[in-house]
Amino acid sequence: MNVITVQSLTKQFGSFTAVDNISFDVKKGEIFGFLGANGAGKTTVMRMLCGLSFPTRGEVTVAGFDLFTEAEKIKKTIGYMSQKFSLYEDLTVKENIRFYGGIYGLTDIQIKSKTDFMLQDLSINDKADTLVKSLPLGWRQKLSFSVAMVHEPQIVFLDEPTSGVDPVTRREFFSMIYEAAHTGTTVFLTTHYMDEAEYCHRVSIMVDGRIDALGTPTVLKEQFSVSDMEGVFLKLARGAKRGDD
Amino acid sequence: MRVLKILLEKEFRQVLRNPAILRIIFMMPAIQLLIMPLAADYEVKNVKLCVVDFDRSAYSRELVNKITATSYFQLVDYTDSYNKALTYVENDQADLVLQIPAKFERQLIKEDKATLFMALNAINGVKANLGSAYLRTIIGDYNREVRTEWLQIPRFNPQPVIEVAAINWFNPYMNYRIFMVPGILVILVTMVGAFLSALNIVKEKEVGTIEQINVTPIKKYQFILGKLIPFWVLGLLTLTIGLAISYLVYDIAPVGNIFTIYFFAGVYLLAVLGLGLLVSTVSATQQQAMLLSFFMMTIFILLGGLYTSIESMPEWAQAFTKVNPVAYFIDVMRMVMLKGSTLWDIRFHLLTIFVFGIVLNSLAVWNYKKRS
Amino acid sequence: MKQFIIFIRKEFFHLWRDKKTVFILFGMPLVLILIFGFALTNEVKNTRIAILDNSKDETTGTIIRQINASRYFDIVRNIKSDRELEGAFREGKIKMAVVFPMQFQYSLLHTNKAAVQLVMDATDPNVANILANYTTAIIVDYQSSMKGHQNLPYTINTELRMLYNPQMKGSYNFVPGVMAIVLMLVCAMMTSISIVREKEMGTMEVILVSPIVPVRLVIAKMVPYFLLSAVNIVSILMLSFYVLEVPIQGNLALLVAECLFFAITVLALGLLISSVADSQQTAMLISIMGLFLPTIMLSGFFFPVENMPVPLQILSNLVPAKWFYYIVEDIMIKGLGVAYVWKETLILAGMTFFFMVISIRKFKTRLE
Question: CATH 3.40.1710.10: does it fit domain C47-163?
């Protein structure tokens, strides 16, 4: 079953085509990796899917709702973790959980049980009342993810969630993602770390606004006759024209 | 409703933890109210006078004594060199030069009239105006004394005399602070309402947390209310602090009903908050927001009748006053605090500001887009 | 050196690309000058007043007509009773009421005496005084015209000469004030916010790691704002001269030099602010409360220093703008030369030096 369907999606900024007529689907419970170099268009796509930006053209459904006409309904069913982690630095851990929980309609009881669970799960019980800005980066990242999941969304969008984080924390993070996918949550993430692609069920690679590769890591590696995803990327990137944002 | 409650919890928590905002709310009223009314004294007094007396007669000296006996004038020097006097003016050591020509006394007696010369530093128009008026009054008084001294009363045809008596209402002690304090209170409330609210929203834009909000099912109006309400409360809090300081330090309490003030302030805040909101929707950085709101507020305050009266302004400026919310509030503040005006008296002001509030906030809500 | 120029260029682009900000920074002096020059005036005219004529005879009629004819007054109400009087003031409709008692003409003709009462809204004491003076003058004029021009014996006349500002325009006072406000906005507020922003965004560290010397970085940030303020200074002077017709009595070159010098002083202040502020909001807060407000209140631009209580007068010496005010006033309005302003200039130089030393020290400790 497809939770995200994208058909001929295009985004133009004036004469500049950031996203060029892409089509793909994402299945329920999948970990879908949206790869590409900086400036390839990944974040633009994600922002459109989340309802932050209007597509110029295309047909998109998210969780069964139409992106153009039912955007607010979509927002109730998705979670989002942005590049900058978007927790409020001047609120404590508990306060952040309460805020996002409340926004998504959780009752006080639900919020309490979620909070207890999260603090336990992340082993930050002692930090429940510390301001987020005092948390180290790795904790913040994991907390952001948990908060994005607080309302048990159908799909969770993660925009470059592991930027600037050490490899150990990255591994821990991905185990959290696996757990989420295991319970039926679809995970849509963008990243420019090619090795993370190995963790995904399927990946697509964007180059200059187009999707130049789509499939499971195994299939792609075979297709390009390389031993890792980085190799796949390098082969594709050679033809790329757009560099950094 | 619950979403709104959750939003407000967050906003209040953030505001109370923001040292910058807290300092503005508490320190600014204190600084402005403690220093400004003391500094902003336009009253003309201690006018520095330099007398150049070429006559040096008994009468010229008597005139000078009479002048210096008042507290308006401070005699800087009594000289016989006009150039020296001018130098004093150049160095800002004298504001006014009175020149008594040679043979003053003799001319007055022989030819029935004599002329005195005044030179004033007119850079400060008000000072020059009032200073020369005071001096003239004193000279006029002296003139009458001289006349009655030299003439016998019965032979003098009584001239019709119209006595003009001026009574000063609302500020019987002619205290400049009474004039300034209401205006300062208006500035304080406006700054919190327009400035801080704009900065707050733009900061979320700059840092990126606003995206997190846009992705959630929070409705536009909920988000905006969530931002407006805390600053509305803060605005009224600032007003309260300001009123308290005015009372404790200057003994200035509203002649009118204090609730009238709060009521109007509440409506006014809605309007300026709307303005702040509008500014935030067109600014991308805090720097821009600050500059824009600062610019607007400066214009509003200057043209709002704070220092200079609106009636003296040219047509175009007076027309602008009609759409200047600050002007309305300054007017209302003075009216209610000093003259005891009632809600009924300020009904037009109230209505106008209310309409402003609706228009500005609607514009802001319309302009705010969750999806770009 | 080349590296330095590259940084200056980068800062320029940053500023230049922010069209909205640039627009306001250029436009603000223009708008302020227009407002101060054309809209704000201490001159009293067209004041709305009311008349309460209990007598309604020929004499009162004449006096009222003369008052109405004057450009100082605009009779907007004819009040019928004392009660109405208070209401009219409370509604904010009038600033003064002229009250004639009953049988005014009769009293005057038969007893040679009559009284007129002026009820003033004294919320603005100066305006009240001026209005009272003008009204009295009109009435006195009428009085002396009554029995023909009878020249009183032993009359002392006075002749007036206005120095520096013959037309008593308010603008002379405000032009240096506008200049100070604009310079403070551009050189202190904007500069400090720009420097602090890099600190906040974390990009400061990136640059500090680069081979550029930190001091040069900071100076590179100040350069575009300095140039901007130079443009502003010139435009303000030109506007004042051509549009407001404020004459520049003294040496133009000296004036411009002093203004530029003051700009540097304010830049140094901006630097100081940025060295102690940890967020943009804080920088803005300090600029407004610590720089802007004191300048407006204590510099002497808007309120005469000599009227202030002594402690405030002493405090005002700490405000750089105060010295700048003296300098501009001396050169531009009084036409004096270097001999008169070297003291104040030296004081400003001292302040600049002081600010820079402290800022550099603070920056150094931050980096270590």
Answer: yes
Do residue C284 and residue B292 have CB atoms under 8 angstroms apart? Answer: no
Cβ contact B127:B47 at 8 Å: yes
- B222 to chain A: nearest residue by CA? A103
The whole-angstrom distance between B226's CA and the closest CA on chain A is 12
Task: Please state, in angstroms and rounded to a whole number, the distance separating the CA atoms of residues C279 and C41.
Answer: 39
The predicted complex's ipTM stands at 0.82
SS3 B120: strand
Find the CB nearest C297 among B36, B158, B203: B36
Q: Which residues contact A123 (CB under 8 A, 6 or more apart)?
A: none
Helices B258-282/B325-334 angle, 10° precision: 160
- Domain ranges, ordered by start, for chain B: 2-40+176-367, 47-150
Joined together, the tokens standing for residue C79 give: 């009040």
Give the tokens for residue A194. 């090619």
Residue C349 to residue C257: CA distance in whole angstroms: 13
Within 10 angstroms of residue B27's Cβ, the number of other Cβ atoms is: 13
Tokens of residue A182, six digits? 């295991």
Contacts of B208 in chain A (CB under 8 A): 82-84, 86
What is the C-alpha R_g of chain B? 29
Residue C359 DSSP one-character state: H
Rounded to whole angstroms, the Cα distance separating C299 from C316 reads 6
Nearest to B146 among C46, C154, C189 (CB): C154
Nearest to C42 among B91, B146, B308 (CB): B308
| pLDDT interval class at A245 (50, 70, 90) | very low
Q: How many angstroms separate the CA of residue B113 from the nearest CA in chain C?
A: 5
Structure token digits, residue A187: 């995970």
CA–CA separation, C68 and A51 (whole Å): 67
DSSP state for residue B91 in the 8-state scheme: T
User: What are the domain boundaries of chain C?
Assistant: 47-163, 170-367
H or E segment at A13? strand A2-13
Q: Do B342 and C90 touch (CB under 8 A)?
A: yes
Residue type, B238: T
Give tens-digit pLDDT for A213-231.
899 989 988 888 888 888 8
B211 contacts on A by Cβ (under 8 Å): 52, 80, 82, 86
Instruction: Check if the beta carbon of residue B293 is closer than 8 Å to that of residue B231.
Output: no
| Sequential DSSP letters for B42-74 | -----EEEEEEES---HHHHHHHHHHHHSSSEE
Structure tokens at C125: 């004491």
CA distance A111 to A150: 8
Residue B315 token pair: 């047509």
pLDDT over 90 percentage in chain C: 5
| Residues paired with residue C163 on neighbouring β-strands, in sequence order | B121
Dist CA B328 CA B339 (whole Å): 15
Q: Which superfamily, per CATH, for B47-150?
A: abc type-2 transporter like domain (3.40.1710.10)
Cβ(C159)–Cβ(B118) below 8 Å: yes
A84 has a chain B CB within 8 A of its CB: yes
* pLDDT average, residue stretch B37-54: 82
What is the distance between the alpha carbons of residues A148 and A145, in angstroms, rounded to a whole number? 5
Our CA-based measurement puts residue A106 at a distance from the nearest CA of chain B, in whole angstroms, of 10
Give the mean model confidence (pLDDT) for residues A200-211: 89
CA–CA distance, C55 with C168 (Å, rounded to integer): 38
B10 reaches A (C-beta below 8 A)? yes
B vs C, Cβ pairs < 8 A, gives 338
Q: Which residue in A has a C-alpha nearest to residue B12's C-alpha?
A: A91
CB contact under 8 A, A75 and B216: yes
pTM of the predicted protein model: 0.82
Check if the beta carbon of residue B29 is closer than 8 Å to that of residue B242.
yes
Q: Are A87 and A134 in contact (CB under 8 A)?
A: no
